[in-house]
Amino acid sequence: MPKFAAGVVKFQRDVYPRNAELFERLAKGQSPEALFITCSDSRIELGMLTQSEPGDLFVVRNAGNIVPPHDTTTGATTAAIEFAVGALKVPHIVICGHTDCGAAKGAMAPEKLDSLPHVRDWLVHMRAAIDITRELGSHLNEHDMMLMLLEQNVLLQMAHLRTHPAVALALAKGVLQIHGWVYDIADGEVYAWDDDVKDFQPVSRRYAAQVAKYLDTAHEHSHAHAHS
């Protein structure tokens, strides 16, 4: 805990004053560009991974980056999705899985989770992904089978997401896009689902045109700023 307290002191002393304008704006409200649903795993640091700033992402984290299918039960994930889409009007939702995921490993061996009954029950929301992986990936080695489960789980949670009324409405109106990502912790690569080729592609390839356009705009902006 002293490490975190010292971090807050450093933030207040060094970081906050440098970004005073940003925090002044954020104190008045938020308008995030995306709802980011990812795993609670401590190795995922979204600011570092996406190079985003405070105010950019509305974040939901839970074991296994799971979205329960919509029903009459109110849970934290369901409420956060409804708020992000219905009230904040986020134009993008990203579901991001990751390698070496303890939740995915647990879902493959639920008999080992008797001492963690809530975890075991929560991971039932991965069931279809497990069934697909066991049947279609039975010939794969353990590493590739786990990668297939991570990808299938992201696709399954994207499908669950579409059952939420606020999401279904925003998709029907054409004001929302859903993205599926898998982050490889070992090499820093992020793979994104490409609906055109029905496969996961490196983010640099999947979003190549958008990234190029964004960098051009950013370059023009900094160039104009330098001359003003």
CA-atom Rg in angstroms: 20 Å
Terminal-residue CA separation: 46 Å
Secondary structure tally, helices: 11
CATH C-level class of the largest domain is Alpha Beta
Description:
- With 228 residues, the protein is α/β, with parallel strands linked by helices.
- It has 2 domains: 1-30, no CATH class; 31-227, Beta-carbonic Anhydrase, Chain A (3-Layer(aba) Sandwich), CATH 3.40.1050.
- Helix content is 51%, strand content 15%.
- It contains 11 helices and 6 strands.
- The protein has helices at residues 2-18, 20-26, 46-50, 76-87, 102-108, 117-122, 127-136, 142-161, 165-173, 203-206, 208-227, and strands spanning 34-39, 57-62, 92-98, 177-183, 190-194, 199-202.
- It has a 6-stranded mixed β-sheet.
- The protein is globular.
- The model has no long low-confidence stretch (mean pLDDT 95).
Question: Which terms summarize this structure?
Answer:
2 domains, 228 residues, 15% strand, 6 strands, alpha/beta, six-stranded mixed sheet, 51% helix, 11 helices
Task: Provide a compact summary of the structure.
It is built from eleven helices and six strands. The protein is of the alpha/beta class. A hairpin with a 6-residue loop joins strand 4 and strand 5.
